[in-house]
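PT: before anyone asks, these are the final sequences, not the draft ones from last week. 238 residues across everything. Please model them as a single complex and drop the result in this thread when it's through.
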Amino acid sequence: MSMRDAWEAEAQNWVAWARTPGHDSYWRFHAERFFQLLPPAPCETLDVGCGEGRLARDLKARGYSVTGVDGSATMVEYARAADPAGDYRLADAAALPIDDAAVPLVTAFMSPQDIDDMPGAIREMARVLVPGGRLCMAIVHPINSAGTFESREPDAPFVISGSYMDRRGYADSMERDGLKMTFTSEHRPLQDYFAALEAAGLLVERLVEVPDTGEPPGSRWRRLPLFLHLRAVKSTGT
Ligand SMILES: C[S@@+](CC[C@H](N)C(=O)[O-])C[C@H]1O[C@@H](n2cnc3c(N)ncnc32)[C@H](O)[C@@H]1O
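LR: through. Structure below.
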């Protein structure tokens, strides 16, 4: 099954997971860190892999104009229902229904590791950006998806028993506070993302490694980053 189909199959669970305030890292610390990376509002924005639309709604509340695109029909339905005046489109990230050089900002928040054709999607994100426009993206940090902590103890060693370098599809099933969710993603080494950005003509100008700032100092996800944020700029061709 493709990752896109797996996300469609999991869409109802995702909507419950993503919309429960405080339930996941988005609410606790992740979104706020991501907002700090963005060019200021007002700004025409395309959100790729928008899911049920929580980031798009939060960006709109901060003064951005947002079009959302997602590969799951169910996610798009939920996004439209929560924001009837909004523009949410069903499409693959590797074939965006947007004109060339149309927007100054593309966001891809926690979607690139879930997109089957990640290099094709980043090429598309670059195509729709105006020269000098920015791509701001967040992913599961590749060190996170490469390994696991040996236990839940704060000082537990982190072990990479397989290969960091090899791509590997994986499905992480979780159950918390009565909510179930399976995340279907692909581990890719960092160089895969950078190769895709370079091939698309995007130059990274900022990179942030995001630990769980809610955990006590010295504990597991304070010592290693959960997520990686970056901002890249499209060449002006000068
Ligand atoms: C972890 S969710 C993130 C959703 C949203 N950005 C958020 O943080 O609330 C990943 C999203 O990527 C979407 N996705 C996966 N493959 C895709 C593809 N090929 N094209 C467009 N969207 C895709 C999924 O449907 C899902 O909504």
